[in-house]
Amino acid sequence: MPHLQLIFKNDYDQALTLVKSKDLLRQMGMLNDVYTDLKGFMKPGHKTRFSNSMIDVLDMFEVESSWLHKKLVPNFEIYMWMREVTAGVIPCMVAIDFLNNFGLEEEGMLDDLHIQTLEVIANRHSFLANDMVSFKKEWACEQYLNSVALVGYSSNCGLNEAMEKVAEMVQDLEKEFADIKQKVLSNKDLNKGNVMGYVQGLEYFMAGNIEFSWLSARYHGVGWVSPAEKYGTLEF
How many helices (H) and strands (E) does the chain have? Predict the structure, then answer.
């Protein structure tokens, strides 16, 4: 996807020369407009983190697309490595900071090991939880780049047991997040400014991801009434 990568390298004019499809040109124009608007909220550090993370996502999308096209199935560890990028969560984390004007990038707080660990947990939680909800649709389409399928294969167990194993992973991540959050709260050198606002932003992102997965017809079809809709929204 070199034409899309060029947008995040601030070379939109060059990107246009690589595309002939009118529909794709329209989509590129929309993407460039959104990115231009977002840059108005970013400090230099944000621009570097955001653009680099988006380029990483697009690069890894090409790998994922190739695997899907060739029906290649990696082992679980390689899948996790890939999904930590293609889930697209990392650019969203950068946006949590600059859109809320938290200022953590400028203060260097995002380089703290506790904060980075919370980001890793939130990222993994987002795509593993999504895998559980999207699995049925993807399995029916013979798309096996899903943690449930890969856990079932690597553990030599049935799909129901594999689903339970992934659910346990998600729950363990939630417990780990809560433990580290408490460490941040009790650390006077770290718990200052907008740090807890950023941590709460990560929590909202995880909760919103689960709610979207349950509500969206993308995975369940039109007319789906989800548990989230029946019993209220999900929030940590």
Answer: 13, 0
CB neighbourhood size of 168 (10 A):
10
pLDDT of residue 231: 46
Which residues fall within 8 angstroms of residue 108, CB to CB, at 6 or more apart?
none
Q: Assign residue 188 a region (left: φ > 0; alpha: ψ between -120 and 50; beta: otherwise).
A: alpha
| CA dist list (Å): 225 to 103, 170, 202, 230 | 40, 23, 26, 7
The torsion angle over the Cα atoms of residues 48, 191, 173 and 229, rounded to 10 degrees, is -90
What are the φ/ψ torsions at residue 112 (nearest 5 degrees)?
Answer: -70, 140
159: which 2 tokens? Answer: 């799909």
Tokens of 167: 């659910």
146 secondary structure, DSSP code: S
pLDDT for residue 235: 38
Q: Estimate the share of the chain in helix, then strand, then coil, as percent rounded to the nearest 5.
A: 75, 0, 25
Beta-carbon count within 10 A of 37 CB? 9
Residue numbers of the chain with a pLDDT score lower than 70: 1, 222-236
| Distance of alpha carbon 236 from alpha carbon 232, whole angstroms | 13
Q: Cα–chain-centroid distance for residue 189?
A: 29
Closest CA to 147 of 123, 159, 58: 159
Q: What is the pTM of this model?
A: 0.86
User: What's the Cα-to-Cα distance from 65 to each of 2, 82, 148, 190, 208, rounded to whole Å?
Assistant: 14, 11, 19, 40, 26
In angstroms, the CA 105 to CA 158 distance is 45
Residue that has been written with the tokens 């980075």 in this structure: 116
